[in-house]
Amino acid sequence: MGRIKTAPACSYVPELPEVETCRRALAPLLVGRTLTDVITPWPRAAATPLAVAGRCIMRLDRRGKFLLLRLDSGWLVIHLRMTGRLVVVREPPPRTTAAFQLDSGDWFCLVDMRKFGRTWQVARASEVVGHLGPEPLSRHFTAARFGAMLAPRRARLKPLLLNQRFLTGLGNIYVDESLHAARIHPLRTADTLSTGEVRLLHRCIRTILRAAITEGGTTIQNFAGPDGAPGRFRSRLRVFRRNGESCGSCGMTIERSVVAQRGTHFCPHCQRL
Predict the structure, then answer these.
(1) Average pLDDT taken over every residue of the chain
(2) Phi, psi of 80 (to 5 degrees)
């Protein structure tokens, strides 16, 4: 079985669309399989003891940027962090930090150049992901709920939207793109948004995430989808890492600043403070 790349080896954490691409690619390979063994060449990759032998994989879920494997007893939770990727191969490749053998003889491996990725085996997934905020693509995440979340907050929008306890799944790429699409400056404070701006930002977040999932995520360096092709959403980025280029909406030069220690890309004309 060939390698299936499902996370980028680059300097940003895979966001909701990339992890969802991973989930969709791995589900047909893993669901119904029984785990027969586990090895951890990098012991720190196991945030909890891993005793999965004999456990059957019932389904694959996602919560924010976490991949959740529902076992017939308990859960296996995986976070790729910065350079982790997941593959199903005949033998664990170099830089494997944790590997789970399947009853087919294949290995389901976390391969991680920088060794930041982590795995947990827990009785309830909430033990790992219970602190996360709402899922932005959930039907329960309405514009009204979003507005109620924003209204009492005086935080700047960029770091607030990156806060996984506030709203999960968004990272640097899709926050920058969503704020640009909604024509909202990243330094605006949450409590200053009008009802119309809240509705527009809510719609832009959901539309952009869905489009990125359809395109297999965003490749910044070497992310590849289940067919080996790079994530195609990069060609649709309007501001992220396009500083110095012309804004496709107004022609002004896209700028880059640092907000909460994160590179932030915006159009000073479309997104006026």
Answers:
(1) 91
(2) -80, -20
